[in-house]
Amino acid sequence: MCDTCGCNVTPGNAHLVDKKTVDVLxxxxxxxDHVAAHNREHxxxxxxxxxxxxxxxxxxxxxxxxxxxxxxxxELSMAVIEGDLETENDAERxxxxxxxxxxITTGQACHLDAHMVHDALHDMALDDIDVLxxxxxxxxxxxxxxxxxHHANVTLLSVTEGDDKPAKYPVMFRxxxxxxxxKSDFLEMIDDFxxxxxxxxxxxxxxxxxxxxxxxxxxxxxxxxxxxxRESVIALGExxxxxxRVQPEGATLHSGP
Amino acid sequence: MHELSxxxxxxxxxxxxxxxxxxxxVDRIVLKVGPLSGIEPELLRHAFTIAREGTVAxxxxxxxxxxxxxxxxxxxxxxxxxxxxxxxxxxxxEWQVDVTEGEExxxxxxDLETSL
Lengths: 257, 116
Ligand SMILES: Nc1nc2c(ncn2[C@@H]2O[C@H](COP(=O)(O)OP(=O)(O)O)[C@@H](O)[C@H]2O)c(=O)[nH]1
Ligand SMILES: [Mg+2]
Ligand SMILES: [Zn+2]
Ligand SMILES: [Zn+2]
Fold this sequence. Notes:
heterodimer; A: disordered N terminus
């Protein structure tokens, strides 16, 4: 009753304390999001399209980058940031094709965050680059929560993983700006992967992202992916605002409670 | 498990707010962690017991609310609840909806103790 004036204080509770509730309403990832916004400014100042590639381990991210470098190397200037728990292997695969690559080994962390990408940018000559690919750590859960400052999320789902992965990992597939159903050369061997059903699962996440089917073993299947990439480079060059599809907390904060 | 990184960020925010208010300890931390936030409440609780050690929040209780997922239809204006992997209009069944609730990952409030 008399908490405020302290008249109920006895020798036993002489360490006087005052209690109060502070309303905060901030995003739990605000530190990351600040650095991400800073990265995005870097990219935009240098006219670099930054694409975050996400998938399970082994869905074909590095292979797709190799095929993309092969096909578009003369047309676009590319660079790659590779995220893996361990090893420089993927960065070496990219460098072997004459494209600069920085490897980030995350050790325990199962995702890249904006700070790691920021540090990696110090090793890159952004002025010379049209497209920076950021190959995230293979994981369908954690990477979706961290804005890196990139412009678009590209999520791969290989046809050997099952067409219901979007329903099982809704946060990841909701965040996709483009879904690539990879390793389509296996479709003839796998009778229960239905590309239409995979697309329907993506739509049921209220996501209108294009869903493309491709295989690095079938170079002619890669055209629509290259077109998406070219159009995105042009859109950024024209000054179109490009943010990865889902930045929920930021959006919530900016529109108020 | 990215919940530990999220928790470490949370603790840094809590420490800053506690210092701004000259608090000696934090009793309670209230979060909203929507079902579409990508955070598992149980993993976050576990990570919190690790991240809080040795900080001003060492004895703090963590209160999490999840809330529900709500959508509003762009086609017919229908609105209502939806499941995490079926974000569909409750009226017309189409997928062209906006999620109006369920993605939050917010620090709502802190209960602080200050010495007089
Ligand atoms: N058949 C087939 N194999 C592929 C394809 N893309 C990748 N692979 C194979 O899948 C394995 C993992 O590919 P990788 O690109 O390292 O996957 P990442 O972990 O997502 O980077 C390698 O053995 C690749 O050769 C594809 O389109 N078709
Ligand atoms: Mg790889
Ligand atoms: Zn994780
Ligand atoms: Zn409707």
